[in-house]
Sequence to fold (552 residues):
Amino acid sequence: MARGWNVWTQWRPAQVATVALAVGLILAALGVAAYNEQLSNAQRLRNANVQAAILAGSVEAPLAFDDVEATQGYLNALHANPNIDAAGVYDLNGKLLAGYSRPGARPPERNTVGPPAILDARLVVTRPVTQGSTVLGSVYLRTISEPFAARAARYGAMGLLIVMAALMVTVLGASNASLVRAHERLKVEVDERLKTEAALQESQRLEALAQLAVATERGRAALHQSEQKLEFALDAGRLGAWEVDLGSGRMNVSDVFKANLGLGPGDPVRTYDDLLQQIHPDDLDDYHRQIDGAIASGKDLDIEFRTLGPDGQSRWMQIRGRGAFDEEGIAVRAAGVSMDISARKADEERQRLLLDELNHRVKNTLATVQSIAMQTSRTAEQPAMFEGAFRSRIGALAVAHELLSAASWDGASLHDVVERTLAPYRTDSDPARVTFAGPQVRLGPNAAVTLNMAFHELATNAAKYGSLSVGGGRVFVSWTIDRGAEPNAIVIDWREAGGPTVEPSLRRGFGSRLLEQGLAREFDGDVQLTFAPEGVSCRMRLPLSNKLREAA
Fold:
């Protein structure tokens, strides 16, 4: 008993020192292991946050344009990073829009933004996707489980320290100097391992960032090219683009949209109120009614309205678009295209006016035909005479209508009316048989028909009984503008020469009544029809008006 106590007393200081050093090494190993674990998790979290931030920034533009294909392209680029297990992009409601995963894994169908978490040794990071102050959706990113080799390398130091401590306890005779040297060597080795692991992680992170940067640049280039094609197509079709945040009222519009409003590229259209100020006041109520109805029903927008530009000019504009709704069914934003439809509206108005004019012309034509028939029947002594005269006068009326139709019933020149009416009596062999000259005078549709009928009656009478009934006869037609009296007037002279001696007739037929009564009444003018022996003459003094005006 005494001997055992002596031995214990003899070896106690060495044993205590050795055991204390061993315990210290074990505690140091545990501390190093805990510190390594903390460093590793912090580094993995930083890498995951960087990846999530890059992914959120990359998919911001595709989410704003609902471009799922471009979004999927950015997710597919994560294949270059071997540490990513699964990732996804989600809409405002947290619903999965596009995803990426390695074999045997997949992102969740729904996502809620929250703090980073570790699930089954995998880091999970979520992050919102924003454009300015507007939240467009969110991203989800999950890393792979840390490889066994990395964890073994990190905890290998601790194992070595524990083994070394056991050896120290077993070999009680080892000197303190040897233990210190062994501890220094072990510390150096642990430090080298930590540096090697840190360098390896940094290399992997930089490689992943470089690969993602290349993929991001390619994606941006493809997106830019797609946006350029869209902009080219919109510009080619003169379609403006617009987008409005219904919560804040902020708008984003293209230069073509501003042009559709009658504005310049530098004129501001930053808010929805800016747009409302450009709408014609008479169309505002109907505009609001259609907008509210489309949003309430969830249907596409298709609205036509008038605008008032800074120059005071009214334009017609059409906008088409579609609203985006949150999970509660509330419209949060809308986007679409615009078109200037002023030309179409002008064509529609012109078509309406032409139809009204056509109806008016048809009624007038029927009334004219009825009058011609009645007047011809009164002067025709026999049915055969009626038929010939009626056909001839209807033919003259058709000539006038043909002339007006060529000008879309916008009127005709006095020169064209005279030329077309007297064309049957002019020949290449004797061009001086019928001559006419005068300044440019523009006739309205009714005036053209009336003067055409008047010249037809004069020419028919000349062909039957006057100068055009013989070979050497002549007809001279001239007109001038009389500015010597108010109102100014067009003076038209019809003069025949070289025909048989004219004998005045007491009987007044259709032609005489048309000239002396109808023509004077139509133009509020004066007509003098003279049956001189040397030839018939007719002077028409017709005041200038909207029916008969001097051409510019």
Residues 1-11 have pLDDT under 50 and may be disordered. The first strand starts at residue 84 and ends at 90. The CA atoms of residues 182 and 334 lie 72 Å apart. The chain has three domains: 2-223, 238-340, 401-550.
